[in-house]
Design brief:
Layout (H helix, E strand, L loop, with lengths): L10 H7 L7 H4 L1 H25 L4 H24 L7 H31 L4 H24 L2
Helix pairs in contact: 3-4, 3-6, 4-5, 5-6
GO biological process, one term: polysaccharide biosynthetic process
Pfam families: GtrA_DPMS_TM
Protein name: Putative flippase GtrA (Transmembrane translocase of bactoprenol-linked glucose)
Length: about 150
Amino acid sequence: MADRQPERRSTIGQAVGSLPQPLAVLHRFSITRYLLASIISLAFDVALLLILVDFNTDPGIASAAGYSAGILVHWLISSSFVFPGKTRQGAALQLQRLGFVGTAILGLGITVAIVSALTEIGIMPVIAKGVAVVVSFFAVYVTRKYGVFR
């Protein structure tokens, strides 16, 4: 009788994994789970960006604030749904959180640089943010998958 492996998926992950095909594919690949987490985080990010820009905040600063709010939301989703069973304990958890913040800073730098540069040449902040999202998404995903949550 073989030993049964403990379930590594979160409760949310188990629910998504039991959905009928093709919806269950959302749980099969970490990139699709990461994309879903990013969409949710992005909703918080862009909402804050647009609110702050509406209050005449500099677009670069507004993008930094929005991205920072999205970071917190993304950690909560990533650590429980995107990379289940990969969250460390004790001191290793603190190092993992630092790595997550480091990748967030990388994404923040990419975002602020792109939004600032593109709005400076007259592109609307929301369009500039869209460009930044694509570039930042792939850079941060790769560093999190192969660095932070390996």
